[in-house]
Predict the structure.
Amino acid sequence: LRLVESGGGLVQAGGSLRLSCTASGFTLGDYAIGWFRQAPGKEREGVVCISSTLRDTYYADSVKGRFTISRDNAKSTFYLQMNSLKPEDTATYYCAADRWASSCRRHDFDTWGQGTQVTVSS
């Protein structure tokens, strides 16, 4: 099982970025997926997660209305569209997948991408 991320970078406050995460070795549509982030000196936190059934979606309060998760099962890829970025969104972003995850907690996911840096300048 493997996840490969792309799309991070440096952006000014108010700008947008889209992160991509491509899966291999498993059928993405059967898995819960999520995006997490970790800023220096802080714990890794769940940003947005969606269950395999698509019935349950979790967004952290800090990103509601600004970030959107989507998936393209045919391409085995899911995305994080980030709009109206703020300096406090600066972090390393990780995508994750798990066959049985029902929450957006780090320990519920067992397959992780390598991380991609997002830096938002003020």
Observations:
- The chain has a mean pLDDT of 95.
- The chain is about 0% helix and 50% strand.
- The radius of gyration is 13 Å.
- Residues 50 and 57 are 4 Å apart (CA to CA).
